[in-house]
Amino acid sequence: MNKSKLQKIELEDITKYKIPSHPLFSPDGKNVAFQVTRSDVDKNEYHTDIWLYTIGDDKARQVTWTLDAGIVIWADNENIILSRHTKDDKAGTTKLYKLNISGGEARPWLTLPFPVNTFKKVNDKLFAALGNIKASDPDAYKDSEETRKKKEEQEKEDKDYQIVDEIPYWFNGAGFTNGSRTALFTVEIIEDDGASEAKAACKRVTQPYFNANDLYVKDEKIYYCGNIEKSKQSKYQNVYAYDIKTKKTEGIYKKNDLSLGGLFSLDGKLYVYASDMKKYGTNQTSDICLVEKDKISAAYVPEVSLYSSVLGDTAEGFGGIYEGEKEYLSVATVRDHNAIFKFTADKSGKKLSKKTIWEEDGLVCSMDASKDDIAIIYQGWDHVAEFFVMDKKTMNKKRVTFLNDEVTEGRYIAKPNRIDYTSEGLDLRGWVLLPDGFDPKKKYPAVLDVHGGPRCVYGETFFHEMQLWVAKGYVVFFTNIKGSDGRGDEFADIRNDYGKTDFKNLMDFTDAVLEAYPNIDKTKLCETGGSYGGFMTNWIIGHTDRFCCAASQRSISNWISFSFISDIGEIFGPDQCGAANAFGDDNTRILWDQSPLKYADKVKTPTLFLHSDEDYRCPLPEGMQMMQAIAARGVETRMCIFRGENHELSRAGKPKHRMKRLTEITNWFDKHTK
């Protein structure tokens, strides 16, 4: 067999990729702005540049180089509002910049006296914003400079203390959030001469303990979802409207019986995504519902999720909807890939019709659209995420950027080979990645990679970690088991079934792969997974010793402890285990029976544990319990704890930490297979 001339994917490549995200059309649809994120290994951080594409051009162009800013909104057809955070910014403020696309540097435009997470234009002089406040000090945004400094000094005095008196008291990626709420503000521009920073009058609209989770602007009203939350997070939200003329708030739907978000309008009628969570629990797919006074009714009941849950480690997701006067577009997850659905309403508005206007293997990281065109950040199996455009008439996909060709050109990228199999009466599919020059007469080690979620999916899309292991000579195989997304709520529902059907699916898939590729060395099978995949890793090692080693990442080992320490534990833990709550003998028995820690005395597999100390989704003690339990029994183990990282380590961790993570896992595999 001829030796391949292609080079191999390298560990360091993960720091060389340039990742586009956040496409946003100008109001007239002639231009699309998007972000490109790149690594700075020396400083162990990331930089973000703004790029611009004019419809009809062959190429996009970079318009910022040193600003490190993110896209907020288009102010008009010529100016983009950007957000930038630096060490010099005043604490508790947000610095906004205005960039003219015709040329020149972005100029400081407006400093808002509160941290902003959503900013929408109402008209040329008025904006709506969602911003963070302390419920105990909701009007801090009005503080004078002197008062602000005094409070900052007091916070320094109290930095060694953290008081918690509510749940959840922390949130993954945000740290301790006790007492923090998301408030609705109006921002009225008082003076903007274009030369110096604009002046604005800010007003908090919502009550101190109100927590808003969505914001939508239409005509003369600001719509938002949320609820008052004191001491405990609410499962439900209501819908409100703030009239900018009368400055009064109206409760449109206030029954406290639905999980709500994603407001939009179509043909002049208001819609919201809503779930009662009664049939399939917290993971139940939301219906698109018509909103009327004191009434929310389903206009479309989705068969699949109306967002992208396809996984990748070289892509950033942001948005996936577009609202026009007569159409509403949404990215959807269909089995193991993404599609774009178009919705139109009947005359009454009570029924929405769906049409699939585009569907293709791969991953749509984000999308925006105009009247005539659609912009997507798309990633296929053979390339890292890039910016594409399609005109709505033909839906032909045109690639605009080639940001990563310099890194991947001349490299061997393994094509996913699909395997269809059956398990527990289910028709399932998975994929196998083969090393370059794969020789059926040669023996190969292999890696089973289990996805997170569980309501996520693997698909035919580039995955750096898998391609790296292929480059190291491993066969890599992965699949979508019961509990995965893309096939509706019934398929995704594994409540009170964790470690049962899903475990059997994984073992049957492993058998199917070994049958299809008999030259895989059965004594050199490795396994890994993160989040739900980490749970499954912990479960697998307690129920089989067929793997020579395993790497458990950001895992769950004990549903009882998870329910009392995770940022989502109080609701998610009991719900997923089919328990009423986490209290009482019957409920704790249900949680404990589905906890990998219960079966730690059966573990023989050498296992590496990786966890982040600021992971509040699957907190550090979850990994530590399992590691200590098997270490106490003399099972070979090792734990790598990443300081300052959270649940998103593999996707958004600092560049050096992402390389260290992959190095730890790869070395562990090598140690037990070479």
User: Pairing-aware structural class of the strands and helices?
Assistant: alpha+beta
Strand content: 35-45%
Shape: globular
| Main sheet record | 8 strands, mixed
Oligomeric state of shown chains: single chain
Through-space gap between termini: 23 Å
* Count of distinct strands: 38
Q: How are the strands of the biggest sheet laid out side by side? A: 31-32-34-33-35-36-37-38
The unreliable regions are none
Q: Helix count, per DSSP?
A: 12
Determine the mean pLDDT. Answer: 96
What is the C-alpha radius of gyration, as a whole number of Å?
A: 25 Å
Roughly what percent helix?
Answer: 10-25%
What does this structure look like?
The model has no long low-confidence stretch (mean pLDDT 96). It is built from twelve helices and 38 strands. Strands 31-32-34-33-35-36-37-38 form an eight-stranded mixed β-sheet, with helices on both faces. With 674 residues, the protein is an alpha+beta fold.
